[in-house]
Amino acid sequence: MFGLGDLEGAVMEVLWRTDHPARVRDVLEGLGPDRPLAYTTVMTVLDNLHRKGWVHRTLDGRAYRYRPALSREDATVRALRNVLDASGDPAAALLRFARSASDQEAEVLRTALAEKVRRG
Q1: Strand partners, 22
Q2: Per-residue DSSP letter, 118
Q3: Which residues pair with 67 in a beta bridge?
């Protein structure tokens, strides 16, 4: 995910898959055996994500429970917006993207733009 490190992205993936606020231990388990990490490492990553505004946390007893501050889709929009803003020429970048879109992606874009025009 744009703007996140590899481990931060993996932690966000776990949180997006979870339908309830998760404890550090839940996230650690959700990362699976392919990522043998220390509890404190995951706790630090979650703290950093909270500081960056990617997660909300609530105190539950002596531990925090974490949930995403935005949906995966909203995070993707944020990433795309950052890429466009950093491109130097957002219009040119959008045109190149539109030309590279599959037929299905182009149809989704046409429908969304038509809806935007209808709403004003």
Answers
A1: 66
A2: H
A3: 56
Confidence at residue 18, expressed as pLDDT on a 0 to 100 scale: 95
Structure tokens at 22: 């998760």
Q: Under 8 Å CB-to-CB from 65, ≥6 apart: which residues?
A: 21, 22, 23, 57, 58
d(CA 64, CA 55): 11
CA distance linking residue 71 with residue 25, whole number of Å:
22
Cβ neighbours of 37 (radius 10 Å): 14
Q: How far apart are CA 67 and CA 87, in angstroms?
A: 31
Decide if 74 contacts 12 (C-beta within 8 A).
no
| Tens of pLDDT, residues 35-83 | 899 999 999 999 999 999 999 999 999 999 999 999 999 999 988 998 8
Strands (E), 31-120: 55-60, 63-68
**CA–CA dist 113, 9 (Å, integer):** 30
Q: Rounded to 5 degrees, what angle do the CA atoms 74, 94, 108 make? A: 60
Residues in Cβ contact with 89 at an 8 Å cutoff, skipping those fewer than 6 apart: none
